[in-house]
Specification:
The protein has 126 residues and is an all-beta fold. The chain is 0% helix and 49% strand. It is globular, with a radius of gyration of 14 Å.
Length: 126
């Protein structure tokens, strides 16, 4: 399984970015794809997740209303649209896959995710 993130960069506060995660190597039909982030000196934290089939989504509370997760099943790609970026959003953003989630709720626990990408850096200047 390969998860390849792209779309990070350096932006000013208030700007928007769209991250992409190109997924390959398995059928994701029963899986969920998620985004996590890790700032320097902090633990990796949940951002959002989406069920591959059906498209239901879950967001961490600080991201609700600013971030939006979506997926394109034809392109096997998951997106994270980030609006109104703040300096505290600065982090490495990781894409992850949670296998076989069709029988349970979407998870915010990084230990439930089985595959990870290498990450893409997002830096927000004030």
């Amino acid at each position: 399984v390969q998860l390849v993130e792209s779309g990070g960069g350096l932006v000013q506060a208030g700007a928007s970015l769209r991250l992409s995660c190109a997924a390959s190597g398995r059928s994701f039909i029963r899986d969920a794809l998620g985004w996590f982030r890790q700032a320097p000196g902090k633990e990796r934290e949940f951002v959002a997740a989406i069920r591959w089939s059906g498209g239901s989504a879950l967001y961490a509370d600080p991201m609700k209303g600013r971030f939006a997760i979506s997926r394109d099943r034809e392109k096997n790609t998951v997106y994270l649209q980030m609006n109104g970026l703040k300096p505290e959003d600065t982090a490495i953003y990781y894409c992850a896959c949670d296998k076989q989630t069709s029988s349970r709720a979407l998870s915010q626990d990084r230990n439930d995710y089985d595959y990870w990408g290498q990450g893409t850096q997002v830096t927000v200047s004030s």
